[in-house]
Amino acid sequence: MRIKTALLLCLMSLAALSICGAYRSLHRVSGPVIPEEVAARFVGREEDAAYFLRDSGGYVAVFSGRRAREPMRITGIETARLRTADRLLLKKGIPADDGGELLLLLEDLGS
């Protein structure tokens, strides 16, 4: 009888530990995260970028540099229709070194 009780207590302890571990793993991420391979394309290029893409009134907008407050142009690309990773990047600002890269980024976001 003691062996059965000890075994039952061990199994209950393991179950409780498993539940706690599962609960903690679910709550580690506080929200959507930009995949590292996507973010790596833009990290460290912010200061040299001629243009930045950011959200403006629910649409993708083109800004002339990182610190510009007013957009040069607001596109017809709705941010609500973008992938989560793209929306997160737009919150930080997507840098573009020149007009060619800007057009490629807009084409990618618009498709």
Structural overview:
It is a single chain. With 111 residues, this protein is α+β, with helices and mostly antiparallel strands. It has two domains: 1-30; 36-110, 2-Layer Sandwich (Alpha-Beta Plaits), CATH 3.30.70.1740. It contains four helices and four strands. The chain has a four-stranded antiparallel beta sheet with strand order 3-2-1-4. The protein is rod-shaped, with a radius of gyration of 24 Å. The chain starts with a helix and ends with a helix. The mean pLDDT is 81.
Q: Care to give the gist of this entry?
A:
With 111 residues, the protein is α+β, with helices and mostly antiparallel strands. It is built from four helices and four strands. It has helices spanning 2-26, 36-39, 84-92, 99-110, and strands at 51-56, 59-63, 73-78, 94-96.
Keywords, separated by commas or semicolons:
111 residues, alpha+beta, Alpha-Beta Plaits, four-stranded antiparallel beta sheet, 4 strands, 45% helix
Instruction: Classify the fold: give the CATH topology of the largest domain.
Output: Alpha-Beta Plaits
| Mean pLDDT across all amino acids | 81
Query: CATH superfamily assignment of the largest domain?
Result: Bypass-of-forespore C, C-terminal domain
The tally of domains stands at 2
CATH architecture of the largest domain: 2-Layer Sandwich
Strand order of the largest sheet: 3-2-1-4
Q: Which overall shape is indicated by the principal axes computed on the Cα atoms?
A: rod-shaped
Helix content: 40-55%
Number of helices: 4
Distance between the termini: 68 Å
Largest sheet: 4 strands, antiparallel
Strand content: 15-25%
CATH class of the largest domain: Alpha Beta
Run of helices and strands: HHEEEHEH
